[in-house]
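Try this one yourself first.
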């Protein structure tokens, strides 16, 4: 069982309690807590219904334009937003389901998950993290990631 040690999550929840939230720092703490190497954070633009990048780490520069705006239903983040549930891949490099976009394979990551930021049935965005090795996230990890997504959504409501 891969339960996320509470000690690793403390910095994440500590940041979420701050008045002014640095989204880049938060994403980096989530990546660290789950022993990942890469991550993205997108907020939902309610006017365009598109996901807009807010923070990223470990993404090659040439891919940034491709992930800056994501339509609902496209790629892992877009599908997580559409389904309103996490979308996971044990090995993004060998995926042939069509969920991962071809450019996603250029990140060189394997075990990955995209988690919708949900609160009271409403979508606020999606964040994704990935490891450089094949990996299946445990139920406990997914539960924790969903809790983080709810806390992030709550923070977005407070700041708007």
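Now uncover the answer:
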């Amino acid at each position: 069982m891969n339960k996320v040690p509470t000690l690793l999550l403390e910095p994440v929840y500590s940041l979420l309690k701050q008045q002014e939230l640095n989204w880049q720092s938060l994403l980096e703490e989530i990546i660290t807590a789950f022993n990942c190497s890469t991550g993205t954070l997108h907020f939902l633009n309610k006017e365009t219904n598109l996901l807009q990048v807010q923070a990223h780490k470990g993404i090659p520069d040439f891919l940034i334009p491709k992930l800056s705006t994501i339509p609902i239903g496209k790629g892992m983040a877009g599908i997580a937003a559409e389904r309103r549930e996490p979308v996971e891949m044990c090995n993004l490099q060998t995926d042939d389901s069509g969920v991962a976009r071809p450019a996603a394979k250029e990140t060189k990551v394997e075990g990955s998950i995209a988690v919708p930021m949900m609160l009271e049935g409403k979508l606020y965005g999606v964040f994704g993290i990935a490891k450089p090795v094949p990996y299946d996230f445990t139920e406990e990890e997914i539960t924790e990631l969903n809790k983080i997504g709810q806390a992030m959504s709550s923070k977005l409501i407070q700041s708007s």
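Discussion: The mean pLDDT is 88. The longest strand covers residues 122-130.
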